[in-house]
UniProtKB/TrEMBL annotation:
Major facilitator superfamily (MFS) profile domain residues: 130-730
Membrane topology of this protein: Multi-pass membrane protein
Protein name, as recorded: Major facilitator superfamily domain-containing protein
Segments traversing the membrane: 130-152, 172-191, 196-213, 225-248, 255-278, 284-309, 524-550, 570-591, 612-633, 639-663, 675-695, 707-729
Species of the source: Pseudoneurospora amorphoporcata
Keyword Transmembrane in record: yes
Length: 745
């Protein structure tokens, strides 16, 4: 059971610990009558002063069951996300028997619908072919960053520029990737992922040809910028596509395949390009890329249809029993003449008659105190303070309840912590006002209203039998009101299974009515969230230092002491490839073991900050690898020494990237889609672009020893911020919930 914050939140003796010792704070408070105070610390993490229900914290109840805390405090979304998020509900008794795998051992999550057009109901070969096609495309795209690393010297000689200037082809390419992710992510949310993939592949081919035939260095740089824009969907969309077409128990294996292909591309494509540069010249790398991407684009066109599906739970059968969220229908008090659309004076309302019989509890003047924003479910139709002041009556017709659930834009659900009485809802005609003296014009709707004139006819309502979140009710309802158009998923539910040829349609229109600029700016707002900001810094460094080394490979191995040719320089990338695979394999397992042990010691309560313990091995491996790489290269050690240190850096950077992503997603799971864009944007712009402007020239002037020692110091300083993040992270999470920057925009 989740501790009840109203009944007292102090844990039982031995349940909450500070570095393994029971906190005495709760024992002291046992003598104090009334509400007990929370322990100040748990495992070195400062608790929130007011509640333990902080979004992101999870109570581990059993091996196969967890209870997320803080759901009622988590803000309701006001925009769609690229990664599908289901409606999170409190624990409820099972309604219908859940669908399971063919052997009956695993409950399918998410639950597929009966429609054959549901991507989860596609044949296994159809879904796996989509994964492989997308994975191959991502493999090529992922390796485009250091594509010319082994050929910097050749490009510099042909165009008569310095090697440090050629590094701009990498930095500005990453800038294009950062800008492209901000553009393509909201576009995919509004119009679907298939047109974005196809357009990206087409632009990828065009820009590759552009780079291959470029007549000047400026033309090459511009081509690389647009090539980065074309490749950007590789970073921000495939994980969402996998989540849309595979069940939860299938995703780990498929994501492993995708990660392996992406990681292999980042390290193997430079190796192949080095061989091409050595034998055919640097321009042929882009010709080969154009041909390979053309083939991958053809696979995308054939095997990656639109995977969007509005996966919202179906509502339960409505009950007339009073409950926590709504009152019993009062239609027995309404005369049929009133229900015919005739305005009713305030004195005739049921609330007025109740007031004559006895006092009715009124909202407290400061009803905005201690408010919490809940999740949008079909029963939780809360109204803002302005709506409640304008409220006069709850509609009582069953058809009108269906209309409200399916068509009326929902506002943020807000309820006071000190008041559990459900307030009546209304349908008010005319402008609402925060002035309590303003009386809205309230009318009723009857069963005999001429139905064809209404966009909410029973025929349409019958097809729209799914529960909507606050965002979905806003956007989908808007689409219903415009010329009676039916949303994409709702239309597919009523259609027979689409044939293979029908699924080849590249564009399906607009999928929702969110504002493009609002969806585009949301990832940037996440920089104000401390956990996301820390993750963005660590992720940018984890990937960025590898890019910095790739930009210096030509200077160290070709122009420096070793005098390698292009092919020998490319073979150096075998070391980071091995280190990256080992780091990815170790990071998840070790991190899970550590956080499970810490959660058990913390009385079964998991905090996302437990993931930050992995910052210690990240700091050790990356700092040693960076300093060792530069030092050994400066001293002219055997070529295997800096190459091994390159692999150590890759190992540590894999630990860092995995840790930053898991910590960010665990802290703000409802914003996972935007957070991935935030992390990639920071990696591409704030690190990849900025360091490419000066690191190669710095390397030429001061030597690799000085440069990489300072880079190691920078890495160490940035990772020191993990300590305050660990201590104050939980309070920071609750602070962002109270400020609610994302949904206020």
């Amino acid at each position: 059971m989740v501790p009840d914050p109203e009944a007292g939140t102090a844990p039982q003796k031995g349940g909450w610990r500070l570095f393994g010792r029971s906190s005495t704070r709760g024992q002291e408070n046992e003598e104090t009558p009334g509400r007990r105070e929370l322990p100040k610390w748990n495992m070195g993490i400062l608790n929130d002063r007011e509640t333990i229900e902080v979004p992101g914290s999870v109570l581990l109840l059993a091996a196969d069951h967890n209870e997320p805390l803080g759901l009622r405090n988590a803000p309701a979304r006001t925009s769609h996300s690229s990664i599908p998020t289901a409606v999170i509900r409190p624990s409820e008794p099972p309604q219908d028997e859940k669908k399971k795998t063919s052997d009956g051992k695993i409950i399918l999550e998410p639950q597929p619908e009966e429609s054959a057009n549901d991507p989860l109901n596609w044949p296994t070969w159809r879904r796996d072919s989509a994964l492989i096609s997308l994975g191959l495309f991502c493999m090529v795209g992922g390796g485009m960053t250091p594509l010319l690393a082994a050929g910097f010297t050749d490009v510099a000689n042909e165009f008569g520029v310095s090697v440090s200037s050629v590094s701009l082809t990498t930095g500005l390419y990453m800038m294009g990737m950062g800008l492209g992710s901000v553009v393509f992510s909201p576009t995919a949310i509004l119009y679907g992922k298939r047109p974005v993939y196809l357009f990206g592949a087409l632009l990828f081919v065009v820009t590759s040809v552009w780079c291959a035939v470029s007549k000047s260095f400026v033309s090459l740089v511009l081509g690389r910028i647009f090539q980065g824009i074309a490749v950007s969907p590789v970073e921000c969309l495939p994980s969402a596509t996998i989540a849309e077409i595979f069940f939860l128990h299938e995703r780990a294996y498929r994501i492993g395949i995708y990660t392996l292909l992406l990681l292999g591309g980042k390290n193997l494509v430079p190796l192949v390009s080095a061989a091409v540069i050595e034998s055919l010249g640097w321009r042929w790398t882009f010709w080969v890329v154009a041909m390979v991407v053309g083939f991958c684009g053809f696979l995308l066109f054939l095997f990656v249809p639109e995977t969007f599906w509005d996966r919202v739970p179906h509502p339960r059968k409505k009950s007339s029993r009073p409950n926590f969220f709504r009152r019993m229908s009062s239609k027995q008090h309404i005369r049929r003449s009133d229900a015919a659309g005739v305005s009713v004076p305030p004195s005739a309302l049921p609330s007025a008659r109740h007031s004559e019989e006895g006092p009715t509890p009124a909202p407290a003047p400061n009803s905005r105190r201690n408010v919490h924003v809940g999740f949008a479910t079909e029963a939780e139709e809360y109204h803002t303070e302005k709506d409640r002041e304008a409220a006069a009556l709850q509609d009582t017709s069953e058809k009108l309840e269906e209309l409200q659930d399916s068509g009326v834009p929902a506002t943020a659900r807000i309820f006071a912590e000190d008041s559990h009485a459900a307030r009546p809802d209304i349908i008010a005609q005319g402008p609402s006002s925060s002035d309590s003296s303003t009386k809205p014009h309230v009318s009723y709707m009857s069963d005999n209203i001429e139905k064809p004139k209404s966009p909410y006819s029973p025929g349409r309502l019958a097809r729209q039998d799914h529960t909507e979140t606050d965002t979905e009710s806003q956007s989908v309802a808007s689409s219903r009101m415009v010329a009676g158009r039916v949303p994409y998923t709702t239309a597919l539910r009523a259609q027979p299974a689409k044939s293979f040829v029908q699924q080849l349609k590249p564009f399906h229109g607009r999928l929702n009515k969110d504002k493009w600029h609002k969806v585009a700016i949301r990832p940037l707002i996440l920089f104000s969230y401390p956990a996301v900001l820390w993750s963005a810094i660590v992720y940018a460094c984890s990937v960025g230092w590898l890019i910095v080394i790739s930009e210096s490979v030509a200077v160290i191995y070709r122009e420096g002491h070793y005098k390698f040719n292009a092919l020998q320089t490319g073979l150096v990338y075998i070391s980071p490839f091995v280190g990256g695979i080992l780091g990815t394999a170790v990071a998840g397992k070790v991190s899970d073991v550590i956080v499970k042990a810490m959660a058990r010691r913390n009385g079964g309560l998991y905090e996302p900050e437990f993931r930050l313990v992995m910052a210690l091995p990240v700091a050790i491996t990356t700092v040693i690898g960076l300093m060792g790489f530069g030092w050994s290269a400066q001293l002219g050690d055997h070529w295997i020494v800096p190459t091994v240190f390159f692999g150590v850096v890759s190992f540590g950077c894999s630990l860092g990237s995995t840790t930053s992503i898991t910590f960010c997603v665990d802290s703000y799971r409802q914003y996972a889609g935007e957070a991935l864009v935030t992390l990639n944007f920071s990696k591409n712009i704030f690190h990849g672009l900025v360091f490419s402007l000066f690191v190669t020239g710095w390397l030429t002037d001061d030597g690799p020893k000085t440069v990489f020692i300072w880079i190691g110091i920078i890495q160490l300083i940035l990772l020191f911020f993990t300590i305050p993040m660990y201590i104050y992270g939980k309070r920071a999470r609750m602070w962002t919930v109270r400020k609610n920057f994302m949904e206020k925009f």
